[in-house]
Write a structure and sequence with these properties.
Elements: E1 8-11, H1 15-26, E2 31-34, H2 38-46, E3 54-57, H3 60-65, E4 72-75, H4 81-90, E5 99-102, H5 108-119, E6 124-131, H6 133-139, E7 142-147, H7 152-162, E8 165-166, E9 169-170, H8 180-209, H9 214-224, H10 232-240, H11 265-275, H12 281-293, H13 296-306, H14 317-349, H15 356-362, H16 373-383, H17 394-416, H18 422-434, H19 441-452
Parallel strand pairs: 1-2, 1-4, 2-3, 4-5, 5-6
Antiparallel strand pairs: 6-7, 8-9
Helix pairs in contact: 1-6, 8-11, 8-12, 8-14, 9-10, 11-12, 12-18, 14-17, 14-18, 15-16
Length: about 475
Amino acid sequence: MAVKQFDFGMIGLGVMGRNLLLNMADHGFKVIGFDLDEQKTSAFEQAATPGTTVKGVGNLKNMTEELSLPRRIMMLVPAGKPVDDVIESLLPLVEPGDIIIDGGNSHYTDTLRRVQYLAAKGIHFMGVGVSGGEQGARTGPSIMPGGDEVAYPHVQPMLEAISAKFKGEPCVAHLGKGAAGHYVKMVHNGIEYAIMQMLSESYDLLHRGAGLSNDELHQVFDQWNKGDLQSFLVEITAAIFTQPDEKTGNRLIDMILDKAGAKGTGKWTSQDALDIGVPIPVIDMAVTMRNISALKAERTNAAALYANKVSPVTTDKATFVQQVHDALYFGILISYAQGLSMLHRASTELDMQIPLPKVVRVWRGGCIIRSTMLDVFSGIYDQNPQLENLLLDKQIASMLQNTEAGMRAVAAAAVQNRFAAGCLLNALTYFDAYSSQQLPTNLIQAQRDFFGAHTYQRIDEPGSFHTEWKNS
């Protein structure tokens, strides 16, 4: 009988799975990984740091037999049916009390179903979001576990060891009931979509609008990353502008087709926000802009039909750069506010009990949306954990008011000069709507009652009312 010597098992030794295990081994844990591809198991063992205990196997039974109890097994396989297939292949090999972890980007409804299915068999199941890409997995990702609180202490030491650290604090915490881990990761990815789209819109306005060269763009974004816009996404954006293209000698950014890919998590965020009635228009527009970008052939035909060309921005260059900085700051803050308001609502509506102070602390290091803003948010949520929306906080109000003029100037420039700046414009519209005591929705209610007898409420007395409208 095999000796149960390994602390943690991984199913799927692609780059993410391999790097997470190697990270764990570097922290003193004995790890074993399974993959049907012998090249991957071999590459995994060869990449191990000397003196660490790692093993790659091509037989699932061999892996489970060598894991200490309770078995801790993570899957990093494509979302959907592959996850269910792996679970079914594991069931004959595990026993009550063992822990199965899905570390991929599964939709939270699938995770909830699996939690319930495996709980009936005495198996603990956890959905865990992991952010940071390949490098983060190897050196310290942001980790978002949710679900079984009984199982969490059995994996907590390992996850805390391998996670990114922010001011010495591990960027991992138990983030709620059921499928909370995957829900938080989904919203994280929605915010990621929004920030990336606003960075691309800012780039477009500065490049084609204000005429900044790639070198100037590098300098601007690099400078921004040293100030209040400091973040991973601004940092890599600055670096992108200097990357040469080996085939042509041009800058690589100028040779990349303007057609974005997507894996679906942004779309899920939009769909699920609609389900619980939370407005996240910046994230919605980010998804939409990617979808529009995919219509390259249609866009080319439409551009010829409408002779639609952007116009140069006439504002003084230095002034406009500052305005775009302020607009980007304003928009990024709004995108965080929308995503976090969604988590606040989901926490109660879906009974996930998501602790927002912990969420923003986990996001401060390792993940794709890490930024200096999150440290500010952390302090705010520590003071008011049940804050419905960041826009209701006085410190946030001051930050938005300080950059509002720049946002309005950039929004006007985008509209007047035909730049498609959907996310920046939606951030401003959301701000104006959310901070408006009076919206024109009274007319919509009148219309609904007129054609469908849907009733309306009055401003001067409680209750629901219906009118027999006259069609004059």
